[in-house]
Predict the 3D structure of the following.
Amino acid sequence: QVQLVESGGGLVQAGGSLRLSCAASGSISSVNTMGWYRQAPGKQREFVATITSGGRTNYADSVKGRFTISRENAKNTVYLQMNNLKPEDTAVYYCYYRKVVGTPAYWGQGTQVTVSS
C-alpha cells in the first residue's frame, strides 16, 4: 500500500502562482512514476504532469510552459510549481503514484486550487 498526502492548494488571482506538494509513504518502489491529475466541476479527471524516478517529465499541452513538475526521491515527494495561473486551471488536483504500467495506481485525497479572474 502507498499513501499520498497533498498540500499547497488555495485561492489565487489569475496570473499568480502556487506550489503543490505530495509526500508518498508506505511500500514505495525505487522505480516509479509520480504526478498530478486534476478534476474540474462537471468534468472528467485529466492528466496534468508526471515525472519518473529517473527524472523524465511529461506535461499536458494546456500547462506546458506554465507548470513545472519536480521531485525529491530521497523524500518520496513530488512538487508542481504552477505559474501564470488561469481561471480554467481551477480544479481539485490529485497526486498520483504508480510503480510501473500495469500495476495499481494510488491517489491522494486531492487539494483544491481556485483561480479567480
Remarks:
- DSSP finds no helices and eleven strands in the chain.
- The mean pLDDT is 96.
